[in-house]
Amino acid sequence: MRELKEWQRKLDHRLMHLLARHLPDAEQVPHTLSVLLRFEGTGEALESLPCTVRTISGDVATATVRLVDVPLLARAPAILFIELAAIGPR
Questions:
Q1: What is the domain extent for residue 70?
Q2: How far is CA 29 from the centre of its chain?
Q3: How many domains does the chain divide into?
Q4: CA 23 to CA 6: how far, in whole Å?
Q5: What CATH number does residue 20 fall under?
Q6: Which of 16, 50, 61, 81 suits 42 as a labelling partner, its CA being 20 to 30 A distant?
């Protein structure tokens, strides 16, 4: 089995599956993803990330993100875990 990169360990299994299927052509995937973000720090830490934050409660936020931006989002130091909530419309 292949060793996971540090940022990949922050993704739930459904996000990993989507990325494995679509990452080479992720720019062509028209869907936005609804995700739950577990983060450290304040909500302001999320403002500069490639996602649209909808709600924040404690150290958990709901957000939308494009599939192509998931790796960049996962590489952010403030992000601890990303869980897929739903795949949005095209």
A1: 7-87
A2: 15
A3: 1
A4: 17
A5: 3.30.70.2980
A6: 16
